[in-house]
Design brief:
Layout: E1 6-10, H1 13-22, E2 27-30, H2 34-41, E3 48-51, E4 61-63, E5 69-71, H3 77-81, H4 84-89, H5 91-98, H6 103-106, H7 111-117, H8 123-130, E6 134-139, E7 142-147, E8 152-154, E9 157-158, E10 165-171, E11 178-185, E12 196-205, E13 208-217, E14 224-225, H9 227-233, H10 240-253, H11 264-283, E15 314-318, E16 325-329, E17 332-336, H12 344-351, E18 370-373, E19 376-379, E20 392-394, H13 407-414, H14 424-437, H15 443-449, H16 461-476
Parallel strand pairs: 1-3, 2-3, 16-20
Antiparallel strand pairs: 1-15, 4-5, 5-10, 6-7, 6-10, 8-9, 11-12, 12-13, 13-14, 16-17, 18-19, 18-20
Length: 477
């Protein structure tokens, strides 16, 4: 069954706004689409999708003439986390983006999409609230700018009108006397929704706290502040006693519920622990905690990103098959009709017979469907098939050249890094992309690259060893 009826790909924001207005109440914007595709698969009815991924300039991350950092609606979690500007002047946001999903998910998911989904457990909302962000919403009727704190009405409810697009996220850069950090507790290290998360920004005057902003996620219907904890810090040095008092007050201000990820009691305990750890990290001058430097980050974007070009102002794909999806897969030009309402995963398998990408969880949590889209590793189960129009796709079938296996494939065979084999194509695609990006990765970088790929039967020792062997082989060439 088709997940949608009509899919538009636009190359100008004006076209997107016009189509959104014409289809008001029936259309949604596709940026990363990682949350939206899940909503559609779980039964949400949205007849029209409008893809803005080909609009130039919407992925900007820049310091504007107004002195604010501006982040566009197509800025991905990966790009924001790896931005030197964000790491230096908005550290909590870089940390929050780095904590979203795993590399292939961060390559598609956007900060704007995270905000619009409006889950109280979303990572970036907490960080941006602490950073005092403001949002610009635009429609054919005009635009308006509002504080992020005024954007939310409740769980998954915002003030956005059905014909509006979030076009800008603006945040004041941290000054020399400010420090901030973000912390999260999930049920595992990666691909985990926050059980609780906390962000904070302190303004210091020497060793004394001049002002404080503490925000907490997954402890109320929306992200909330901790004013009592903030008040306890104001005018005080960050002693163990003051930190303990502020952490306890933050836990008192949390209003969590019991759910499948954790009890209300656990969440209060975690809020107290996270606030304490965050304040201690700022006091000790280590607010970065374990965030890698931009040059050391594993993004799984290969040696270079490919920017496809499209002709015409608007391209539409319909379920009747009149508009074909034309793209390059494994070096060959292909044309597919009738795949409009599918994901990229099922178009590759059903229409092109490329069975390497596997339908595992189909929720972006196992990595079995990993392919390369325009040079970057992505989860094909969360990519609408029409997004491939005009793009370049590589699957595991395309890694071997002229009958010669890719070094990663050879190493997997030689190290017996396979048991049932179901997850293997995803691991191979992630590993091969890593070696294009970093020919000599550290063990930690290999672990990060594979963090979004789950194996249920072999464990990871031989898989990691195989990637190390492949890197060694490439180093000898």
């Amino acid at each position: 069954m088709a997940l949608w009826q009509t899919y538009y790909t636009v190359t100008s924001l004006e076209d997107g706004l016009r189509l959104l207005a014409e289809n008001r109440g029936k259309a949604r914007i596709v940026a990363g689409g990682t949350d939206l595709v899940l909503e559609l698969r779980h039964g949400r009815k949205v007849p029209v999708l409008i893809d803005i991924t080909r609009v130039r300039g919407l992925d900007r991350i820049a310091l504007g003439e107004d002195g604010l950092i501006h982040i566009g609606p197509m800025a991905t979690h990966a790009a924001v986390a790896a931005s030197p500007l964000i790491q230096e002047k908005a550290l909590p946001l870089a940390q929050a983006c780095w904590g979203v999903g795993a590399p292939a998910l961060r390559n598609r998911g956007t900060v704007a999409g995270n905000l619009i989904t409006a889950s109280p457990a979303n990572d970036t909302i907490t960080a941006l609230m602490a950073l005092d962000a403001r949002l610009t919403l635009r429609s054919v009727r005009g635009e308006r700018t509002i504080p992020l704190a005024d954007f939310y009405l409740g769980v998954r409810r915002t003030v956005m009108e059905e014909d509006e697009i979030l076009t800008d996220i603006a945040i004041p850069p941290l000054t020399a006397d400010e420090a901030g950090t973000y912390l999260k507790m999930g049920l595992r290290k990666v691909l985990a929704i926050a059980v609780t998360n906390v962000a904070m920004v302190l303004t210091m005057e020497g060793t004394t706290v001049k002002a404080a902003r503490i925000t907490m996620g997954s402890v109320a219907p929306t992200i909330i502040r901790a004013p009592k904890a903030e008040g306890a810090l104001k005018g005080q040095p960050l002693t163990d006693e003051i930190i303990a008092q502020a952490a306890a007050l933050a836990a008192e201000e949390a209003r969590p519920i019991d759910d499948v990820r954790g009890s209300a009691w656990l969440r209060k305990q975690e809020v107290e622990a996270l606030v304490r750890k965050g304040l201690e990290a700022i006091r000790e001058g280590h607010p970065r905690r374990d965030l890698p430097q931009p040059e050391a980050m594993v993004l799984l974007q290969g040696g270079h990103r490919i920017r496809p070009t499209l002709s015409g102002p608007t391209i539409a794909h319909h379920t009747d098959g009149d508009e074909p999806i034309q793209f390059v897969v494994n070096g060959e030009n292909v044309t597919v009709r009738g795949a409009n309402g599918k994901t990229l995963l099922h178009m590759l398998r059903d229409d092109l017979g490329l069975m390497g990408a596997k339908p595992g969880c189909e929720e972006g949590e196992c990595g079995a469907c990993t392919v390369w889209l325009d040079g970057a590793a992505v989860l094909s189960c969360l990519v609408p098939a029409p997004r491939a129009h005009g793009a370049n796709v590589v699957t595991v079938e395309g890694l071997a050249k002229g009958g010669t296996l890719h070094p990663v494939q050879e190493a997997f065979v030689e190290e017996d890094a396979v048991q049932c084999g179901f997850c293997t194509p995803g691991f191979v695609m992630s590993a091969a992309n890593l070696l294009e990006e970093r020919p000599h990765p550290t063990r930690e970088q290999i672990v990060t690259a594979l963090s979004g790929n789950l194996c249920r039967c072999t464990g990871y020792y031989k898989i990691i060893k195989a990637v190390e062997k492949a890197a060694s082989k490439l180093g000898e060439v």
